[in-house]
Amino acid sequence: MIKNITNVRGISCWGAHTGVKSMRRDLAIIYSSVPASAAAVFTQNQVVAAPVTVSRNNIADGKAQAIVINAGNANAATGKQGMEGAKAMTNALAEELGIDENLVLVASTGIIGVKFPTTEIVEGIRENAKNITNRSNAGSFVANAILTTDTFAKEGFMEYEVDGREINMGGIAKGSGMIHPNMATMLAFIVTDIAIEPKLLKTAVKETVDKSFNMITVDGDTSTNDMVIVLANGLAQNEMIKSTKDKDYAIFKKHLEEMMIHLAQLIVSDGEGASKFIEYEIVNAPSEDYARTMIRKISDSALVKTAMYGRDPNWGRIISAAGNAGLPFDYEKMDLFIGSDKKLEKVLEKGTPLEFDYNYIKKLLRESHLKILLDLHDGKAKSKGWGTDLTTDYVLFNSVYTT
After folding, report:
1. Fold for the domain defined by 5-269
2. Which residues bind substrate (predicted)?
3. pTM for this model (two decimals)
4. Which residues form the catalytic set?
5. Residues annotated as binding site for substrate?
6. Which residues are part of a known binding site?
7. Domain boundaries, the chain
8. CA-CA distance, 64 to 307, in Å (whole number)?
9. Over the stretch 152-171, which tens digit does the pLDDT of each residue have?
10. What is the pLDDT of residues 8-31, one digit of tens each?
């Protein structure tokens, strides 16, 4: 049996169908048997969904014990009625679990601006809270219950050792469209049994989100509902991690980053209408922030995306996008490579175009996993990001389907 979030000590969950979505599970509950250190990163969109506001308030003290998520309605731009609905969700789950309502976080995903079906969802919470379990199938139920236009569930699990104790970490995510750096229409929930202080967890989450979820793009749209939540309940009973200088902190942060990158890449691979998964890498840059900023600009370029869709080795679009990143940039120092994730071809060396077999590179670009690599020869920093191509299927999907 493949392990999932239910293999984290003290974690139980359930995913159910309440009727908000016609054919799929649409309610998810994740519960820790003890209050956990909690940290989150939320959307940077100025239009903020009600559940984001409620969860921001409830997680302010760095503690949480349960998360409830509904799919099918984003509860965004729903006014007072929507805010009351988000609070009703936290209140209902808190009552059913016998915990303080401030220990419950809430998330929603679905259509924006539609009246929130509070009654149906609250009834679903009360009916299904009693079903939470640590059976493996419950983890799969939860991973499927948070999906909207996704075509598959996105899960991850890992085990490693800290302070002589086995640490378990599991995660789920959703996202397919409205995906853009600085968070996207995506939700991610990661649970672990490591013991770490809340303030330190917050630091780790922020830094690892910047290297994972904030480095993906599908269509350049940042959503109203995005959030990444991490709960660490301490049941592994390792010595409490209290400092960034602690060697165990570095181990934890490394694995948290790996989990986030894994989930982020699954989101990109499920991009609406996408036919290509594209990895962007910049090496020998002046700083990591510089490299990340340039990657975001290139990966979000419609001209780069469409060139990859058309298998067109038009490298001029790539350096043009790099030059539009608002950074000091001397392309005459740069080497540029394009191709598949298995084979790269250099097309530019120190700003000078190289002769290359056009048809051979077109053949490389037929692969589903592509790569673009820029060597700036201007420092020692590096970064990676991930995106998709832009296809006619994406346009068709989003012109006929309300998301």
Report:
1. L-amino peptidase D-ALA esterase/amidase (3.60.70)
2. 148, 174, 185, 272, 398, 403
3. 0.90
4. 185
5. 148, 174, 185, 272, 398, 403
6. 148, 174, 185, 272, 398, 403
7. 5-269, 277-400
8. 45
9. 999 999 999 998 999 999 99
10. 999 999 999 998 887 889 999 999
